[in-house]
Amino acid sequence: MREVRIKAGNMPEIAVAEDGRLVEYLRDDQANHDAETIYLGKVERIVPGMDAAFVNIGQKKNGFLPLKEKSQTFRHEGLQCGDRVLVQVKREAHEQKGAFLSRDVTLCGQYVILMPCDRYIGVSAKIDGEKREILKQLGSALAGDRFGLVMRTSAAEASETLLAEETEMLWEKWQNITKKAATAPAPSVIHEEVSLLDAVLRDYAPRGIDVIVTNDERIRHRLDGTYPVVWTEDDPMDKDHLLQQRDQALGRLVPLPCGGNLVIDECEAMTVIDVNSARATGAKMAEENIRKVNIQACEEAARQMRLRNLGGIVIIDLIDMQPESRPMVEEALKQACLKDRVKVVVHGFTSLGLMELTRKRQRRTLRDEWTETCTHCQGSGRKQIKEEKHD
Predict the structure, then answer these.
(1) C-alpha 76 chain-centroid distance
(2) Which tens digit of pLDDT belongs to each residue from 145-187?
(3) 65-110 pLDDT tens trace
(4) H helices within the chain, ranges in order?
(5) Looking at residue 31, what DSSP letter applies?
(6) CA distance 218 to 329
(7) What gap in Å lies between CA 126 and CA 119, rounded to an integer?
(8) CB contact at 8 A, 75 and 118
(9) What is the chain's percent helix, strand, coil content, to nearest 5?
């Protein structure tokens, strides 16, 4: 059972719970949520050695724009200092770093992702078999060499008519964006992504939303009739200890049902998840117990990535196991990641036996949303031992 809970306030809070377990806890602080926003920027500086440009988009720090995009089918022209350029924020500004920008704009719908500057036709990796080929051919027909198109997982259950209608709606949106950019000053905001709540509902609607619980009358009236909405005068986050689950996710240690635990450390370059057996393994059937702990660890790690909104590189240090157990554990992780509405790619085991995966970086992490750096330890969580004075 999937519940979406919405708490009223200046910055509404949104919780997603599956069978009573919290999987997302978000705060709709639109001022600090810049991902996917489209700007008309001005190129301030080009650094050939970095193969990148720094673009003024009206923020404190200039955005970082690679001159070459990852896609081989992206179409673009060269840039010079002073040029006006349409860019999209792919990673928000963070501390000393400006926003990470791209000219390969994407417009996301419920069923498809339209790429107006690209010509790539793709299908979600979660769709396979004959359905995948059918959707790829349909995507090619709908795009007609006008733009690129990716069929999302939800497209598998949608009709051709519905896919065609959404594709044309997104194409019309892009045409309106280019018209606005033609006369807008640089820098300026050209297009903002839908609200956080709308994005959550858009992504979960095809997967099924059993109930929406809210104490916000405006939300109740807007969504009633479209979703099963329950209104409450109380705090909708009180049920199922959702706030307690959120606060637990701000710590390092996560217990596992089998008796083991995870230790999660968010580092600058990546997130590292260490799996400890604790009291979970014994002398008998050691390999079977280790495999059981590792499978539970993968399932919980997938949930924690969603809940903590971890992005970028994630490394999981699993308990050492026999080579024949690895495929089963890797498959358990892939299946658990299918529940994530954010793109996750499981790259498999490294030569050192570490599980490597990447998760698309979006908004700020749960830790950044709900905590601040300690002024005494500067975020290390440790203090220096004072030297004893000797006479």
Answers:
(1) 27
(2) 899 999 998 899 899 999 999 999 999 999 999 999 999 999 9
(3) 999 888 888 877 889 999 999 999 988 887 778 899 999 999 999 9
(4) 129-143, 160-183, 196-204, 217-223, 242-248, 286-308, 326-337, 366-370
(5) G
(6) 45
(7) 21
(8) yes
(9) 30, 30, 40
Give exposure, 266-303, as e/b (b: 16+ Cβ within 10 Å): beeeebbbbbbbeebbeeeeeeebbbbbbbbbbbbbbb
Average pLDDT over residues 286-304: 93
Pairing of strands 270-276, 261-266: antiparallel
User: What is the DSSP-derived secondary structure letter of residue 238?
Assistant: T
C-alpha angle 235-240-245 in degrees, rounded to nearest 5: 95
Q: b/e string for 57-93 if b means 16 or more Cβ within 10 A?
A: bebeebbbbeeebeeeebeeeebeeeebbbbbbbbbb
Q: In angstroms, what CA-CA distances link 331 with 123, 157, 298, 347? A: 20, 24, 9, 11
**187 cis-preceded (ω within 30 degrees of 0):** yes
- From 319, 296, 309, 369, select the one nearest 344 (Cα to Cα): 309
Closest CA to 61 of 82, 92, 29, 105: 92
